[in-house]
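user: can you give me the structure for this one chain? tokens are fine.
assistant: on it. calling the predictor now.
[tool input]
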Amino acid sequence: MTRRRAAMWVLGTLLYLAIWPLAGFAFAAVGVGDVLENAELPLLGGGSKNTFLSSKSLANVFVFFRPHQDHSMDTLRALASCDQEFNGKPVHWVAIVSGSFPVDDVKAAVSETGIKMPVLVDEDDALYRRLGVRLHPTVGVTNEKFQLVAYEPFHEINYCDRIRGKIRYALHEIGEAEVDKVDNPQRALMPNQVKGAVANRHVKMGEMYIGMKQPEKAAAEARQILAEDPRFAPAHMLLGDALAAQGHCDEAQASYGTAQQIDPSLAAAVQEKRHACGAH
């Protein structure tokens, strides 16, 4: 390994080690399972104060955000819909912003995202320091005992579902197994792995051959499907169309009849095709 490559490797490793902890822990001073100390913060715009945790709620949801950050804005919009979804349930919502941001900028962000929850201003960043907030946005959820159930830094995928799952867990609506399913959803199958997807592709190909006046190729597509799945009704319909296009109306009627027998909802379409083939 050359000196240049070795130096680049060392630099890359140091950067990774510096960034990785931040990605893994949104809060530096508290972790899941810890009981949070409550704090009273002024409401945006001044006036009265409010606590960021409520003893009257089964779930406390709080979000640390920045008014000029895209992910923060996306998160506030998502929470605006979540807020409505849990309307009437014992869930306490607050958004928390550092006092270092101009009030007008924060008000503009709140107005743009449509959130209805109270916005609290951490004027001297005391709560920031107490929790060790590292990432923005971060959504925290506690139970009725102020025990931190979860914290969720921003995720590009499945973020809103993850937050909903943690809230429902704090509300005792679901257990840990259900939360894990939300956090680790089963990977979606590729289209060619979904049952019937390949067969439907052959049907579309056969329909294209019908349109191109090549019924023999359409019939070959249909028979290829039926060799794998004799009860795939669309393939019987395609075979009927291919046979009708070749003038084999009796055989076409038999294919249409089989399709209708498998899927009775095709009755109207079968009747129309039979008339088109000259049957009465």
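assistant: here you go. The chain has two domains: 3-183, 191-276. Confidence is low (pLDDT under 50) at residues 9-24.
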